[in-house]
Amino acid sequence: MAGQLESVPAVEIDPDGMFKYILVRVQRAGGAEHRDVVRGTATAEFHNHIFEKVNPEMEKLGFECKCLGGGKIDHNSKDKKMRVFGLSTGYGKADHAVTVEILKKVYQDYEITWSDDKK
C-alpha cells in the first residue's frame, strides 16, 4: 500500500507564473497512512476547481482526498524562485510551511519562501 501512495506525485504545478494552489491529503479509503501533495494551476479560476480535478483522479486509484487549504504560488522558473502566500476563500489558508517543504523535495535547486501576505 505504501508503494502505491508513494506513486502519487508530490507536486503537480504549472511550470511558470502565478497561480492558485491547494494542499491535499491523500490516503487509502479507511487507512491511516497518508501523503500530503501540492496541486496548482493558472487554469483554475477558484481553488475548488483544482480539487474537483484531483479528487476523481485519486478516487480512481482507490484513494480519498481532503483539501487542507489553499493559497497562491508565484513560480519564476527563470530565476528558480517560488513564493507561496495567500489563502483560499473556500478552503482557508494552507500551512504554507508544509507546502514549501513538499516543493523543496521536487525543486531542490530553487529558492522557495512563504508568507501570510495576501498579495
Report what the structure shows.
Helix content is 25%, strand content 39%. The chain has 119 residues and is α/β, with parallel strands linked by helices. Strands 1-3-2-4-5-6 form a six-stranded mixed sheet. It is globular. The termini are far apart.
Provide the spatial order of strands within the biggest beta sheet: 1-3-2-4-5-6
Oligomer category: single chain
SSE pattern: HEEEHEEHE
Extract low-pLDDT stretches.
none
Q: Please identify the structural class as seen in this structure.
A: alpha/beta
Rough shape?
globular
Gyration radius over CA: 14 Å
Function: Exhibits phosphohistidine phosphatase activity.
Organism: Mauremys mutica (yellowpond turtle)
InterPro entries: Janus (IPR007702), Janus_sf (IPR038596)
Enzyme class: hydrolase
List strands and helices in order, with pairings.
Layout (H helix, E strand, L loop, with lengths): L1 H5 L4 E3 L3 E12 L5 E8 L5 H14 L2 E14 L4 E5 L10 H11 L4 E4 L5
The gist of it:
The chain has 119 residues and is of the alpha/beta class.
Key terms:
single chain; 119 residues; six-stranded mixed beta sheet; 6 strands; 25% helix; 39% strand; globular; EC 3.9.1.3; protein histidine phosphatase activity; 14 kDa phosphohistidine phosphatase; Janus; Janus_sf
